[in-house]
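Q: My labmate handed me this sequence with no annotations at all. I'd like to see what the chain might look like in three dimensions before we decide whether it's worth expressing. Could you predict it?
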Amino acid sequence: RSMANTKEVKGADVLNNAFSSSFTGGDGVSLINTAHPLAGGGSAANRAATMADLNETSLEDALIDISTLTDDRGLTISVQATKLVVPPQLTFVADRILNSDGRTGVIPQGYTVNHYLSDPDAFFLLTSVTESGEGLKMFQRTAMETSMEPDFSTGNIRYKARERYSFGFSDWRGVYGSQGA
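A: Here is what I predict for the chain of 181 residues:
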């Protein structure tokens, strides 16, 4: 259980640090930023210019922003939101927005609650870029190995477990986010 908890915490850290300039990606800026440099010049954003709480308007604006993302040459690419990720504090807000009558299919995979998010009003939208294998990443370097042995001096059984993995992101277009107002 302890190892599973650690993996959840480390995985959530990618989103918990998504707005921090201390955790930058290959383009030199944080995962969620308004100034991702484009190879063809200029910049692009994967957040609104002004942070907003999760509500119908902020979600609509985010979905429009996602649908107009461009590649590094400034050409529009086909990207759509696939899943809303919220902390436990936004469960009921997400449910009201996505599951009210007439709202079916706005986000194909609906929403999920991540209990390891540290900001109670931040929300994230995963996009089809992540679904295609880019965006958020998890590398399993060594699968979990367990072993046990008796301790001669105490008569107790000693257990140990080991695994290696890392979390990160390769394409900032894989996630869109807001820290809330």
